[in-house]
Write a structure and sequence with these properties.
367 residues, alpha+beta, nine-stranded mixed β-sheet, disordered C terminus, 15 strands, single chain, 24% strand
C-alpha cells in the first residue's frame, strides 16, 4: 500500500515505509502508545496506569492499563524476540497481573501518576465517563495486547487459539512511513482481535514531573484564569506546591513537614480540569491533630461554596465553565481556610498505626 500526503496546493508527497527500528528506540513506541491509547484495542480506549511495571519474576510489563470494564490489560512490544518468546512472556505477565488485588493495582497507578492521593475507582469512572449506575469489578479478567511491526503467523495462530479458549488477546501490527521532507506517519492495524495476588510490592516507573510552565500551557482559557490565581495565592501565602506528572498538590508546612490537602489537574488528566480535596484518607486522619473533625469541618465548608461536589470519598471542583469573580474568590477562600486550619492544628509527632476510616466521615458525602 502506498501512502501520500496532499499539500494545500494539491501536490502529492509520498510516505515511504521505513523500518521503525532504523531510527528509533523501542522506548519511543512506548511513548506513542502511552500518550495515544485510544487505538490500542478494538472495543474501548484504555486508561494507562503503569509503565515498566516490575513483576515478582524479575520482568517488567511495558505498559499496564485498564479497560472500561476494569480488566487489566498487559501491553507488550514484540521487539526482537522469537514468536515463542513473545507469547511466553505475554502469558507470564498476564498470569502475574491476575494475582494483583485492588490495592496493588491502585498502588501501581499512584506511583505511575506520582499522586499518592489518587483513587483508582474514581479515576477510572471519570476517565471513561461512566454513568452512576455502572458498576465495575476490577481485575476480574485480564487481556493481552501484543504490538509489533510484524505479527508472525505463529503469533497470530496462537493468539487466535487463546481467544477461542477464553483468554482475550489482541495483536496490533504497525508500519512507519516517512516523506522526503521528514514528515512521519504511524499506521496501526489490528490483525488479531477478540469478542468477548502478588507476594511482593508492585513497582512501576513514574512519569516525568511536569513544570509550572508546561501545566499552564496545557490548560484551556477557563482553567488558566482560575489556576493562575490559585498558584499566585499559594506563592503569596507560602504554601508549597509539589509538581507531579500531570498536575500539582497544594501543601501546608506545619512542624517543618509538607502536607498536601488538595490537588490541581489539567484537562487531559484522568480527573479532568479540576481541583480535588484530600481530606478523607488515612494520612489526613492519622497525621493531622484532630484530623477527622477538621476533615468534616473543611468538607462542610467546601460544600457550602456550591463549587465542590462529592467524588468518591473526596470532593471535586470541576473547572469546565467560566467562573465568576465571586466563585473564584470562594474557591481561594476555601484553600486559605483549609491551609490555616491544618497549620493551626499541626501534625502529630507520632501518628502511630493507621486506623480505619470512620464510617461517619465517609457518610458526609451522602448527606
Amino acid at each position: 500500500m502506498r501512502l501520500f500526503g496532499v499539500s494545500k496546493d494539491g501536490d502529492f508527497a509520498e510516505y515511504v515505509k521505513t523500518g521503525f527500528g532504523d531510527d528509533h528506540q523501542e522506548a519511543v513506541l512506548e511513548d506513542w502508545l502511552e500518550n495515544n491509547p485510544d487505538g490500542i484495542v478494538e472495543d474501548s480506549k484504555l486508561l494507562i496506569i503503569g509503565r515498566q511495571v516490575q513483576t515478582s519474576l524479575g520482568g517488567s510489563v511495558d505498559l499496564l492499563a485498564l479497560d472500561r470494564w476494569g480488566d487489566l490489560v498487559v501491553i507488550e512490544l514484540k521487539r526482537g524476540r522469537t514468536p515463542r518468546e513473545t507469547i511466553a512472556q505475554a502469558l507470564e505477565y498476564a498470569a502475574y497481573a491476575a494475582k494483583l488485588d485492588y490495592a496493588q493495582v491502585e498502588g501501581v497507578a499512584r506511583q505511575y501518576q506520582d499522586d499518592d492521593g489518587l483513587t483508582l475507582a474514581e479515576a477510572h469512572r471519570d476517565y471513561f465517563a461512566l454513568a452512576p449506575e455502572e458498576g465495575v469489578s476490577f481485575n476480574k479478567s485480564q487481556r493481552i495486547v501484543i504490538v509489533g511491526e510484524t505479527i508472525t503467523p505463529e503469533i497470530r495462530e496462537t493468539a487466535n487459539f487463546l481467544n477461542n479458549n477464553g483468554l482475550r488477546v489482541t495483536c496490533l501490527e504497525f508500519s512507519f512511513f516517512r516523506t522526503d521532507d521528514g514528515k512521519n506517519l504511524l499506521s496501526g492495524d489490528i490483525v488479531v482481535t477478540n469478542d468477548a495476588r502478588s507476594e511482593k510490592p508492585v513497582a512501576s516507573g513514574s512519569r516525568v514531573k511536569i513544570t509550572k510552565e508546561q501545566f499552564i500551557a496545557s490548560l484551556d482559557p477557563i482553567g488558566a484564569a482560575v489556576f493562575l490565581k490559585v498558584l499566585a495565592l499559594a506563592e503569596e501565602r507560602g504554601l508549597p506546591i509539589h509538581w507531579g506528572s500531570r498536575g500539582f498538590s497544594v501543601n501546608v508546612n506545619p512542624n517543618g513537614v509538607h502536607f498536601k490537602f488538595c490537588y490541581g489537574y489539567p484537562p487531559h488528566s484522568v480527573y479532568g480540569q479540576s481541583i480535588y480535596t484530600r481530606l478523607f484518607d488515612s494520612a489526613f486522619f492519622t497525621r493531622v491533630n484532630s484530623g477527622e473533625a477538621i476533615a468534616r469541618e473543611l468538607a462542610t465548608k467546601a460544600k457550602a461554596t456550591g463549587l465542590f461536589s462529592p467524588a468518591g470519598n473526596e470532593f471535586k471542583c470541576p473547572i469546565v465553565r467560566a467562573m465568576t469573580e465571586k466563585e473564584v474568590d470562594a474557591l481561594l477562600a476555601w484553600i486559605v481556610s483549609a491551609a490555616d486550619r491544618i497549620q493551626e492544628a499541626g501534625l502529630r509527632s507520632d501518628s502511630g498505626e493507621l486506623t480505619e476510616l470512620s464510617n461517619q466521615a465517609l457518610e458526609i458525602n451522602k448527606k
